[in-house]
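Notes from the 1:1 (GR / supervisor)

We went over the backlog. Supervisor wanted to see one worked example end to end before approving the batch request, so GR pasted a single chain during the call. The sequence is below; no edits were made to it. Supervisor asked that the structure be written out right there so they could see what the output format looks like.
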Amino acid sequence: MNLKVSDAVYEKVPSLRVGVLVLEGVNNTADVGEWFDKEYASIEKDKIAKFDGVELAEYPLIRAWRDIYKGFGEKKARSSIEALIRRVAGGKGLYRVNALVDIYNLASLKFELPCGGENIDAMPADMELTVADGTEEFLQLGSTEIENPNAGEIIYKSGDIVVCRNFNYRESDITKLTDDTTNAIVVFEDAHGDGDLDGAMDWFVEHAEKMTGARVVKREIRRFL
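Structure output shown during the call:
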């Protein structure tokens, strides 16, 4: 599994770096509950203290992602990292899904970098981060109705299937990570090139290997050259 980032995306976000991890042999039914609760308690404490009294819309990271979304015409959708920070800072807690999703959500929150994962075996082709022409098909997580992205929207896709809409806003029900997932691609996004991308990837890999038995068969950082 490879990830291609189109030049059209770099034209909109020239400093973008994308961290790519390909995993095999994942046991996604592994019980990470006790570990998750301990890690989350520490991260939650730090984030609640950090964002106490902070207007999140003006926090540089969140403002930067909102500007990226506005750059391709999206006014309502919000980045996945904004959604995570808002939940935790607002005392709503962090939802549990399955082992890999739980681990990457903690990594995303800890390092303040958007992160997502997909089931490789459900994808018909390599994954691409690109600009939509509007004809691609998307089945939103939990939905039964196919929709199309907006022309000009930044999306992840595999063939003609949209894997994630609005950069990192909404995941596909087709390629979601499930208990049966054994092979996965996990992607971190550093929009301005100054985040701790290596640290986030190191942290995720350490815990994914330990908790799920995953083998990392590819690790790379994609950037505009």
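Supervisor's comment: The radius of gyration is 17 Å.
Batch request approved.
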